[in-house]
Input
Amino acid sequence: MDEQTNNRAAENEIEWLAERFEANRDHLRAVAYRMLGSSTEADDAVQEAWLRLNRADTSAIANLGGWLTTVLARVCLDMLRSRASRREDPLDALVVEPIAKGADATDPESQALMADSVGLALLVVLDTLNPAERLAFVLHDLFDMPFDEIAPIVGRSPTAARQLASRARRRVRGGAPEPDADLTGQRAIVDAFLAAARGGDFSALLAMLDPDVVVQADPAAVSAGAATGVRGAEAVAHQFAGRARVARPALVDGVPGAVWAPGGRPRVVFTFTISDDKITAIEILADPGRLAQLDLAIHDD
Output
């Protein structure tokens, strides 16, 4: 009977921890995604936090939410450092999804999403930061963690952690180029890009791409064979040369882009970020739910 009682008590403890963890899951995933820029890696980090919680002595944890955030941050820091040592980029880095219509702006999670809803531009700049800078900026500026809690995670003093975030903040504010406002000029660049891609004109593609251009694709596009996390003008030019034969110019939410729409039904959308007459980012979207939310106007060839 004593053994049964102990087993039941252990089961109750696991159930209680699982309930508390699930209550924190959305916040943890939001933190992990902004630190890692990868949906898959964010899920892996959250799962690792759960495993560490199961191995921990929870009787000594006064603030479970804070403890989980700290553990998750250390997991993400290790992942970022490992990625940097291998000089790898995440394979499925995604653009930050917009807040669902009707979201409560007073909800802390919604506020965090609103503060971080600048999308691909922010993720691209965050990837230029070293792991400690990225962690300090994300935890403090996006999730309001105090520097005295960030400091032991990055192995620095609170003052040094503050300096890390400050350096990262300057990079974020100055590192994301302003997109061009000239829609006519943007359309001309997109049209020229599609023509060069169809014709396999590598030199022409290279001339239109920013040296640090990045291509990102959503999971549906990756499943269909699209590459993601591709960086650099030469790599992107190689990716598109001889391709995009069926893509047609279009306005995507009022901005020049391209659409593959067999039978008039949009299946893949390409969006372009253009700055100083150079393409700085390309997004490939194929998720039906996201495509349904876009305002698309396909041009006649």
